[in-house]
Amino acid sequence: MSLITIVGRGHGGTRAISHTLIASNVYMGEPLNRSGDLLPPQAMYEACRLLARSVLWQGDLRWDFSQLHTMPIPTEFTDLIHTYLHKVLTAPDEHKGWKIPETTLVFPWIVRMFPEIKYIHWVRNPRDNILARHLTDDLKDFGVTYPDAETLLASRYPALLAAATVAEDKEELLWRVRRALSWHYQHAIVAATPKPAHWIVVRFEDFVRDQTATLARLEEYLGIPLGRIVVRSETVGRYDRAEGASYFDFLEEGMREFGYAIPS
Question: Is 95 inside a domain boundary?
Answer without folding.
Answer: yes
